[in-house]
Amino acid sequence: MHVTLQLIASLAATLGAYGVYKALKFVYGNVTSPLRHLPGPPSKGFIWGNLKEIVDAENSVLHEKWIEEYGSTITYKGLFGMHRLYTTDLKAINHVLMNSYIYQKPGPARYGLEQILGKGVLVVEEDAHKKQRRVMNPAFGAAQIRELTDIFIEKSIELRDAWELEAHKEGSDSQPATIDVLSWLSRMTLDVIGLAGFNYKFNALSEGEGQNELNQAFSKIFETSATVSLIPLLRGFVPALRWLPADRDAETKQARKTMDRIGRELLDNSKDALRKSGMKVEKGSLKSKDLLTLLLRANMATDIPEHQRMSDADVVAQVPTFLAAGHETTSTATTWALFALSIAPQVQSKLRDELLTVSSDNVSMDELNALPYLDAVVRETLRIHAPVPSTLRVAVKDDVLPLSSPVTDRNGKVYDSIPIQKGQTLFIPVLPINRDKKIWGEDSHDFK
Q1: Reduced to 3 states, what is the DSSP secondary structure of residue 226?
Q2: Which one of 151, 183, 409, 448 is least enclosed by Cβ atoms within 10 Å?
Q3: pLDDT per residue over 13-57, tens digit each?
Q4: Residues 212/257, Cβ–Cβ less than 8 Å
Q5: Helix, strand or coil for residue 428?
Q6: Span 144-149, mean pLDDT?
Q7: Beta pairing class for 425-429 and 83-87
Q8: E runs forming strands in 45-168
Q9: How far apart are CA 88 and CA 431, in angstroms?
C-alpha cells in the first residue's frame, strides 16, 4: 500500500511539474512574442482578450474597423492574453495557405471536429490529408459534378413547387405569404447532399428534417449550447484532460454511433454494387453518380498502390464530412443570394430576364454555364456574403511570414516580414478580403 501511495504521489508530482513547465513556457513565449509590438486594439481582459467583443459584433465588422484604424497587419488578444495575428496582406495569406505542413488547423478545433466527423478530409493534415485528397480528387472532377445536375434540378423543382403550395396555403390578396426560406433551403440541400454525396434519401422536403435517423444524429452532434462550458475547452487545449466527462458526452457518443453505423451500411452497399457490376475498377472508369461510390471506386482502383488507399474508417468518415461541408454552407449562401436580390430589384429583374431564355425546367449544365449574369450573381453573393467568413491556422514550426506592405510597430520599427513562432495562431479573413476597398474599390460593400 505504501509503495502504491508513493507511486501515485510521484506521478502527481511529475504531472504537476510538467504542468508548471508548460504554463511557464506559454507565458514566456507570449511575453517575448515577436508580435507583441505590432499595432492593434487594447485587450478587454486577460481571460477572453478581444474575443467577446468579436463574438458580439457582426461577422468581420470589428476586424474591418481595426484594419482601417491600425493597418493591414495587426495583433489582438485571444484566450489568456495569447497574441493572435490578423492580416489582410495577400502575400502573407498566400504564404500561409500554400504551406500546409507549417500552418495547420488549431489542435482544439481538430480535436472537436474529429469527435464529430472522424478522421475525414476536413480534419487530417500533412500526408494523411494528401492521401485522402489524392483518392478523392477523381470524384470531384468537372465531368463527375456534371453528372449530378439532374439531382440539383429535380430537388430545385420540388422546392419551387413546395413554396408555391405554401404561398397559396398561407397567403391572400391582402396579405402575402411569409416563407422561411432558410429552413426550406436547408431541407432541400440536405436532400441534395444525401443523394449526390452517398445515394441516401433524406426526403427532408417531403417529410421534414426531423423524420430521418441520420439527420437526427447529425443535428444532435452539431447542436450548440446557449452557454460556454469549461470542460470542452479544457479538453480541446489540454490533451491530458480529455478523459474529463462533459454534459453532452452520452448524447454525442450515441449520435456518433448512429452515424458510423449508417455510414458503414452505405459503404457496404456501395461495395456490393461495385462487386456485382463485375467491372474492372480503374481510377479513370468513374461511372456512378454519388460521390461516395465514386470515392470508393477510385480507392479500389487497380492502378492505386496499396499504401495510397484509404481505410474503410477513412471512407466512412467522409459521410459526415460531406454533410458538414455541403449542407448548411449551401443553404446559407443561397439564402443570402435571395436576400441580396430582394434589395436589388434591378439585378433581380435582369437575372429573371436571362433565366427566362432557358427553354425548359430540366436545364442542362451546359445551359446553366451559358448564363453569364447568373454566374456573376452567384460570384457576387459569395464575395459579399461568404458562408465561411474566416478560418484559423496555427504554426507548427518557426517561420518567417513575408509581407507585400511593410508594417510599422508601436516603436516605429518597420517590418517587411514577421517572425512567426511555433504555436502562433493566425486569423485568415475571408469576408474582409472580399470587401477590401483597396481591392474592390470604395463601393466594395455593395452588391452590384
Answers
A1: coil
A2: 448
A3: 665 665 564 555 556 566 668 888 899 999 888 888 888 888 888
A4: no
A5: strand
A6: 86
A7: parallel
A8: 73-77, 83-87, 103-104
A9: 10
* Contact partners, residue 362, CB within 8 Å, separation at least 6: 153
Tell me how far apart the alpha carbons of residues 298 and 81 are, in angstroms, rounded to a whole number: 47
Spatial strand order in the sheet of 83-87: 73-77, 83-87, 425-429, 390-395, 103-104
Length of the chain: 448
**Whole-angstrom Cα distance, residue 178 to residue 170?**
8
* pLDDT tens track for 340-372: 999 999 999 999 999 999 988 888 888 999 999
Residue 287 has pLDDT above 60, yes or no: no
Question: Which residue from 19, 143, 35 is spatially nearest to 81, judged by alpha carbons?
Answer: 35
Q: Is the separation of the CB atoms in 73 and 379 below 8 Å?
A: no
Report residue 177 as a C-alpha cell: 405569404
Residue 3 confidence (pLDDT): 59
C-alpha 104/C-alpha 393 separation (Å) is: 5
- Identify the DSSP state of 224: P
- Distance CA(420)–CA(100), nearest Å, equals 15
Task: Determine contact, residues 74/40, Cβ cutoff 8 Å.
Answer: yes
Distance (Å, rounded) from C-alpha 268 to C-alpha 293?
A: 10
Q: Residue 380 has which C-alpha cell?
A: 457576387
